[in-house]
Every structure is written in structure tokens, then in C-alpha cells.
Amino acid sequence: MKLHLAALLPLFLLAPATGVFAQDAASLQKEITELKEGQKAIQQELEEIKQLLQQRVAAPRPAQPALPTALDTTGILVKGDPNAPLTIVEFTDMQCPFCSRYAENTFPKIDDEYIKTGKVRYIVEDFPLESIHPNAFRAAEATHCAAEQKRGWDMHDRLFANQQKLTKEDLSAHAAALGLDTAKFQACLESDRYAADIRKEMAAGQSSGVNGTPTFLLGVAGAQPDRMKPQRMLSGALEFSAFKSALDDLTAKQQAKKD
């Protein structure tokens, strides 16, 4: 049987073209999926802003109370030299997208320039906004339970990187992924033994004027161990420059007192 060249030519053209089209389709589908995920994250943030604004309209924000003269700085998530001249206490919510943004973009720079160099001691306190983040309190308990196995910071980072997966079942999966003793972790989580500690941290934040997350109290070491004297409050997923300005200003004031 003889085939004419004219009859074969379309087959040669079609074969590679089909492969190219398949690759293009796969790439396009990937881009569409990424766009949808980005859109979902933006919608979540917009919805949170809407809810916060509605709450503030319904209940006008009270006058900012004076900063406390002393604040307890004991906690499960602590970094830095205990004798560092400055202290930062962060009040956070594990389901808060702004807290996650800060943890990803700003905190690493603070860690490199101020914590690792011995200039700042850093403490994370829990402040779950239960009215808009139903999984936040249990996620906070998960970090405490992970801290029992010396993996509190690892759980903290993992939960912020997976904020869409904070159900009870998800938390157990995160513990397994971190290589924790899952039986001990699950028993801890179900016991609610850290609920009172979290409520205490929330109360300390509220008495200090914290009403959203993330909120930061910057200050100097107190007269007693594990105490700080707050000097300034910062709120929101701020850029590193805002913290640098505040911290350098506090350092200059402390140096002036010594001179």
C-alpha cells in the first residue's frame, strides 16, 4: 500500500502540536489554580476586615488605656537572650491572616537583626479572636501541646503556613508531620489543660489595650525576672522599618539614661 506525502503531512504536524497544546493547557490550569488560591486568600482578608469594621461600628472602640507598668514575659514561645536590653511581646492569633503575613515577612528580619544579636528578647502570647476565628483557640492549644515536646516554635510556624487546615483532625496531622508523639499530643489537646493559660494571656492583653492581632508591646527589662516595662505599642502586619525605628529609638533613650 502506498501513502501519498500529502496525506502523511497532517499527521506529522498534528502529533507535536497536540503535545504542545497539552503542555500549554497544563500550564494554564496551574496558573488558574494559583489565581483562585490567591483570590481566596484576598477574599478571606477582605471578609475579616469587614467583620472587624462591623464590630467597631457596633461597639465603639474605648479610649486607649495607659500601658501597664509591668508585664509578665513568661511563655512557651520565647526567643533571645534573657538579659537582652529590650523586649517584644507579640499577641497573636493562629488563624489571623495578618499575623501569618507578619510571621512570614517581618519577623525573620527582626530575628536576624535584633534577636540573634542579643538586642531583643521575644515572647509570643496567645490572643485568639474567637468571634471571627473559630479554630484559633484550639490552634493556640496545639502550640502549647507541641511545646511539651520541644516543638512549640515548629508548630507555630507550620500552623501559620497552613491556616486553611486548623481543624482538630488537621492539628493531629500537623503533629504527625512534625514527628511528634501523636498519642501524647492528642491526649494533651483533648485535655484542654492549657486553656486557662491561654485565657490568662488574653486577659493580660486586654488589660494592656490589645483589641486586635497582631499587636506588639515593646519595652525594657523590668526590675524582676520575666517582667518588662512596656514603652510602646505597635499594631498590625507592619513592615520591618516600623519596628526598626521604634527599637532604635528605645535603644537611644536607654543609652541616654546611662550617659
**Total count of strands:** 6
- Overall structural class, as computed from helix and strand content, comes to alpha+beta
In what order do the strands lie side by side in the largest sheet? 1-6-5-3-4-2
The percent of residues in helical segments reads 55-70%
- Strand proportion: 5-15%
From N to C, what is the helix and strand string?
Answer: HEEEHHEHHHHHEEH
CATH topology of one domain: Glutaredoxin
Quick one: overall form? globular
Mean pLDDT: 85
Oligomer: single chain
As a whole number of angstroms, the C-alpha radius of gyration is 25 Å
Q: What's the CATH class of one domain, please?
A: Alpha Beta
Cα distance, first to last residue?
A: 102 Å
CATH architecture of one domain: 3-Layer(aba) Sandwich
User: Count of helices?
Assistant: 9
Largest sheet: 6 strands, mixed
Poorly predicted parts: 5-9, 11-15, 52-59
CATH homologous superfamily annotation of one domain: Glutaredoxin
